[in-house]
Amino acid sequence: MKRPLGVLLALFFLLIAGSRPAASADKPLVFGVFPNMTAKQTIEVYRPLASALEKHLGRSVVVYSARDFETFVARTRQGEYDILLTAPHLAWLARQDVGYRPLLKYAQPVRGLLVVKSSSPFEEPEALRGRTIAAADPVALVVMATQAELSERGLKRGIDYHTTDSGTHANAVMQVINGRADAAVLGLHPYMLMPPELRKQLRVVSETPSLSSLMYLTHPRLRDAQAQAIRQALLGFAATPEGQAFMQRGGYGGFADVDGSELRAFRPYALQAQEMLRSAR
C-alpha cells in the first residue's frame, strides 16, 4: 500500500506534535516507535513496515513516537501504544507496569558506540578526561552501558567528564561534528542508518559489549490471536524484498524470539532508568 505524500506529511507532523489522532471508525492500531531517531527518520524507516502490517491485518496502522524518552515511557505506561517497539530495559518496565507481551526482537545485537570526529586527536576513552560527551538521553540503554564501561576505565560522569543531553543520537553526533562536544554516545543501529558521508566524519574509539536489540511488544488489550497475527505479519515482512532491504539498512539482522529470562537480565538497567525518570519529574 503506497501512501500519498500528503498522508506521509500528516503522519510526520503528528510525530512532531506528539498529539494522538482522533479515533476513527476502524480504530487504527497505534504503533509506538522508540524515539532514537528524528521524527523524519522514523517515518522514512518504519512506514514500509507499518504498511505491511496494514496489508496483513486489514487494519490501519498509525506510526507514533514521542519528543523524548521520558514522554515515550509515560505514554507506554498509559497504554497508548497497541504495538510497541522499545529498548529491552524499557520493555521490562512495559511488561512489569502494564503487561505488554514480547513478540520479537531484532536479531542483531546492539552496542553502544563512543565516537569522536575523524580528525580528533583522541584515540582512547581515557583521553576524554575533562572533556564533554554528548548523548541522546541518560535513560537510553546504550548511554547507560557506555557510562558503565567508562566507569570501569576510571572515568566517572560529572567528575572526570561532562555530558550534554542531545535528545536524539543524530543530535549527539552533530554536537561532535559542529565542535560543541568532544565525543558522542550512540547506538549501533542509529549509526548504521546515518548517511555514509556523515559516518565518514566520525571515528569509533570504543564499543560496549553486545546488548539485546529493540523489542516488539503488544498491549494486553489485544487478544492472543491479534498478537499472533501481528507476529506473523512482522515475520512475513522480513521475508519480502522490501523487508530484507529494511533489515539491511538498519543492520537489524532479521527477527528473533524473546524469552522471559532475557528480559529479566535487563531489570537492573530498568530500575535505574525508572529512578532517573522519577527524579526528572
Précis, in short:
Helices cover 45% and strands 18% of the residues. It has twelve helices and eleven strands.
Write up this protein:
The protein has 281 residues and is α/β, with parallel strands linked by helices. It folds into two domains: 174 residues, D-Maltodextrin-Binding Protein, domain 2; 96 residues, D-Maltodextrin-Binding Protein, domain 2 (3-Layer(aba) Sandwich), CATH 3.40.190.10. 45% of the residues lie in helices and 18% in strands. The protein has twelve helices and eleven strands. Strands 2-1-3-10-4-11 form a six-stranded mixed beta sheet, sandwiched between helices. The N terminus is likely disordered.
What's the arrangement of secondary structure elements?
Layout: H1 5-17, E1 29-33, H2 39-57, E2 61-64, H3 69-77, E3 83-86, H4 88-97, E4 101-106, E5 112-117, E6 132-135, H5 141-152, E7 162-165, H6 169-177, E8 183-187, H7 188-193, H8 196-199, E9 202-207, E10 215-218, H9 224-238, H10 241-250, E11 255-256, H11 260-264, H12 267-280
Parallel strand pairs: 1-2, 1-3, 6-7, 6-8
Antiparallel strand pairs: 3-10, 4-10, 4-11, 5-8, 5-9
Features:
alpha/beta; D-Maltodextrin-Binding Protein, domain 2; 2 domains; five-stranded mixed β-sheet; 12 helices; 45% helix; 18% strand; globular
Query: Largest beta sheet: what is the strand line-up?
Result: 2-1-3-10-4-11
Query: Which parts are unreliable, with pLDDT below 50 for 5 consecutive residues or more?
Result: 1-25
State the name of the first-level CATH class of the largest domain. Alpha Beta
Please give the radius of gyration in angstroms.
19 Å
What is the helix content? 40-55%
- Indicate the mean pLDDT: 88
Instruction: Write down the domain tally.
Output: 2
CATH-assigned homologous superfamily of the largest domain: Periplasmic binding protein-like II
Total of helices: 12
Please state the second-level CATH architecture of the largest domain. 3-Layer(aba) Sandwich
Strand residues, percent = 15-25%
Helices and strands: which structural class? alpha/beta
**Order of SSEs, N→C?**
HEHEHEHEEEHEHEHHEEHHEHH
The CATH topology of the largest domain comes to D-Maltodextrin-Binding Protein, domain 2
- First-residue to last-residue Cα separation: 41 Å
| Largest sheet report | 6 strands, mixed
Number of strands: 11
